[in-house]
Design a protein that fits this description.
Shape: elongated
Number of strands: 6
CATH architecture: Roll
Oligomer: single chain
CATH superfamily: Head domain of nucleotide exchange factor GrpE
CATH class: Mainly Beta
């Protein structure tokens, strides 16, 4: 209950989770690629795993999401 109230309060103040989940497009502006996996079936860089969530504060990036990407090769 305390956790959900804290998240609600932070969201109301302008904190947002960086968009992007598994199998979505990789955006180097808001994602940090920690590992790139060769030979994936995707035609463009795709997020395979999200290791750490990223956060935006009032639309400004404060921490990029750390992700594993497939390079589409």
């Amino acid at each position: 209950m305390i956790h959900s109230k804290l998240l609600e309060l932070l969201h109301g103040m302008g904190l947002e989770v960086v968009p992007g989940d598994e199998n979505s497009s990789f955006d180097p502006e808001i994602h940090e690629a920690i590992v790139a996996e060769a030979g994936s079936e995707a035609d463009c860089p795709r997020i395979l795993e999200v290791w750490n969530k990223g956060y935006l504060y009032k639309g400004r990036l404060i921490r990029p999401a750390k992700v594993k990407v497939g390079d589409g090769a």
